[in-house]
């Protein structure tokens, strides 16, 4: 391994080590040999468990503290010098105060442990999109997870030695005080400090912290976008290729849409779906005036429960080797893993996510935590697209916003323009899920699925979207979907998963000007007959239900949007105009 010769990097590492006082500092070179050695340490201490080498080669099992199983939004802060630069939707504290508070917590936090220095890249090293970082951590789980989720090691050290900018990431599992958990971003210093957590979103600092919070801040400054979006490739029977980005809040279907398996009818016709990304997109305007996207990650940190051979066979196959499972149930008979809805054969001799003996056949308790996850290399995915590996960006035809709403939101509609689409994104709502600490199932506003992830003032973020639209001669068309509408029996009306392709195909036809639509106050909706329902047990009545826009319900929605907007003292005119038009349209229903 080449030494790090960049003195800015070395001085910073030295300073952090003086504060956290580890026994030793070890640089990660990204080699299999080194990662194997480190893994052995975690197996020896029992921090991680090796799973059945025949059935799940290279796979590991990990459990977090039961109070530390999801992102903690209340303890996630954006510390800009001016409060208004972070607000009004982010938690904020003055950087000087926050650094002082954190320095006390980090003081000696790594005593008796090793500090690992992980040089990593978000994006393919050397491409225009790539951003580099170094994460210092005392957690082997973080080292092994970062080695899956990002590109780590020597090529990044070479970039740092050549003087590349980098994000300074510091994490300590510490656990000195469970109540002193903090995930703190200092965008103006390109710095992230996280302490007292071991849960992915709080500690794999390349992911939400760098690629979204710091990324969105840098994107605004440098003229690009960092978004909570999947990227999907659709190849039509005639060979035409299309790319779609989708922004849905946490645990609302991005991974599943990104790895979609076409229904047999469409497979036979020759439709192919490939995966470019499942959670984060970085987007730039190309010379041709179109919007190009890359997935800056190198793996998938996906929700385990609900993943099965029918709902998402590609995700399941992706997790069959070199994967880390966190907070799922374990089968003690054959040392494999299990989670709700994996199959109809839960272990009798099992252990639940808390580590308690668990009989899946008789127990009424869940075996896996609802936010239990797999951390799997992207290269394992049977549908991974070639474009993922080049990291040069794919041209986006459509952006899809979506939420989890039992009522109100119809199955699909198209916005009337880029600006109108920005309004649609800004007014997005969704029921909360287990991906974040707090109550589940509460409707909240989550613009562009970025409420937990935007690293700066949300009204400036809306303006940035409007400004990006002005830079494109051929912007993506913007749509809104809701796979989660329920009937009188509270059951989902739309089958979802692979069948979502039927909705995507209407969108692509719209992009090409080849499909009909009706104008509604929300935007353009398909007529029931415009969605291909071949082989589906769904009639025109069901589709009408899925597409219905109810006046009273939408009068309430409008009140909700008004209330949400009231916290912003400067909304782009384009958004205000689109909102006024919606109000008039709903009144005229
Ligand atoms: P994050 O990783 O938290 O950002 O989540 P995500 O947006 O990638 O969500 P994911 O695809 O993991 O899905 C979350 C949950 O929603 C899982 O339990 C899925 O089974 C379920 N789900 C996904 N797509 C659909 C769908 O089309 N219909 C229904 N009914 N459920 C879905
Ligand atoms: C999400 O919550 O949106 C995730 C998981 O993708 S985490 O990395 O924990 O944020
Ligand atoms: Mn996510």
Automatic annotation (TrEMBL):
Stretches for region Disordered: 346-373
PROSITE patterns, A to Z: PEPCK_GTP
Major subcellular location class: cytoplasm
One cellular component term from this protein's GO annotations in UniProt: cytosol
Record CDD domains: PEPCK_GTP (cd00819)
Record pathway: Carbohydrate biosynthesis; gluconeogenesis
Gene3D superfamilies xrefs: 3.90.228.20, Phosphoenolpyruvate Carboxykinase, domain 1, Phosphoenolpyruvate Carboxykinase, domain 2
Name the UniProt record assigns to this protein: Phosphoenolpyruvate carboxykinase [GTP]
Gene: pckG
């Amino acid at each position: 391994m080449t030494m790090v010769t960049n003195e800015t990097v070395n001085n910073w590492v030295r300073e952090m080590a003086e504060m956290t006082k580890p026994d030793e500092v070890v640089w990660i070179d990204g080699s299999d040999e080194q990662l194997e050695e480190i893994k052995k340490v975690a197996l020896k201490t029992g921090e991680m468990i090796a799973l059945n080498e025949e059935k799940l080669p290279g796979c590991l099992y990990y459990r977090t503290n039961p109070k530390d199983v999801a992102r903690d939004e209340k303890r996630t802060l954006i510390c800009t010098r001016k409060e208004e630069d972070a607000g009004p939707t982010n938690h904020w504290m003055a950087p000087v105060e926050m650094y002082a508070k954190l320095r006390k917590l980090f003081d000696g936090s790594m005593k008796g442990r090793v500090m690992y220095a992980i040089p990593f890249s978000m994006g393919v090293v050397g491409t225009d999109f790539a951003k580099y970082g170094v994460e210092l951590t005392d957690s082997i789980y973080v080292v092994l997870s970062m080695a899956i989720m990002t590109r780590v090691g020597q090529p990044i050290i070479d970039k740092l030695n050549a003087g590349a900018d980098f994000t300074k990431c510091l994490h300590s599992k510490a656990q000195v005080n469970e109540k002193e958990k903090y995930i703190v971003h200092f965008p103006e210093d390109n710095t992230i400090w996280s302490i007292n957590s071991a849960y992915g979103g709080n500690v794999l600092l390349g992911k939400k912290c760098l690629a979204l919070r710091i990324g969105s801040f840098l994107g605004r400054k440098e003229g690009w976008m960092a978004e909570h979006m999947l990227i999907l490739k659709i190849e039509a029977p005639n060979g035409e290729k299309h790319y779609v980005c989708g922004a849905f809040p946490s645990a609302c279907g991005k991974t599943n849409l990104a790895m979609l398996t076409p229904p047999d009818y469409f497979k036979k016709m020759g439709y192919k779906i490939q995966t470019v990304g499942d959670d984060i997109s970085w987007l730039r305007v190309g010379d041709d005036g179109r919007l190009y996207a890359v997935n800056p990650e190198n793996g998938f940190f996906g929700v385990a429960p609900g993943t099965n051979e029918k709902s998402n066979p590609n995700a399941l196959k992706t997790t069959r080797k070199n994967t880390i499972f966190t907070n799922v149930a374990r089968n003690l008979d054959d040392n494999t893993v299990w989670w709700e809805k994996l199959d109809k054969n839960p272990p009798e001799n099992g252990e639940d996510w808390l580590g308690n003996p668990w009989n899946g056949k008789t127990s009424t308790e869940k075996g896996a935590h609802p936010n239990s996850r797999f951390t799997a290399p992207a290269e394992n995915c049977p549908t991974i697209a070639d474009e993922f590996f080049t990291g040069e960006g794919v041209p986006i035809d459509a952006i899809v916003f979506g939420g989890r709403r039992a009522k109100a939101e119809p199955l699909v509609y198209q916005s009337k323009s880029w600006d109108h689409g920005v309004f649609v994104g800004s007014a997005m709502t969704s029921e909360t899920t287990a991906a974040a600490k707090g109550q589940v199932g509460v409707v909240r506003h989550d613009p562009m699925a970025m409420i937990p992830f935007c690293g700066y003032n949300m009204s400036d973020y809306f303006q940035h979207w409007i400004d990006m639209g002005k830079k494109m001669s051929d912007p993506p068309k913007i749509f809104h979907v809701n796979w989660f509408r329920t009937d009188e029996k509270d059951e989902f009306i739309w089958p979802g998963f692979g069948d979502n392709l039927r909705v995507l195909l209407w969108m692509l036809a719209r992009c090409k000007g080849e499909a009909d639509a009706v104008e509604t106050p929300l935007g353009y909706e398909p007529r029931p007959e415009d969605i291909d329902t071949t082989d589906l047990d769904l009639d025109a009545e069901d589709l009408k239900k899925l597409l219905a826009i109810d006046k009273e319900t939408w009068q309430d929605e409008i009140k909700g949007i008004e209330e949400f907007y009231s916290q912003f003292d400067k909304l782009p005119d384009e958004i205000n105009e689109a909102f006024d038009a919606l109000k008039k349209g709903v009144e005229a229903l």
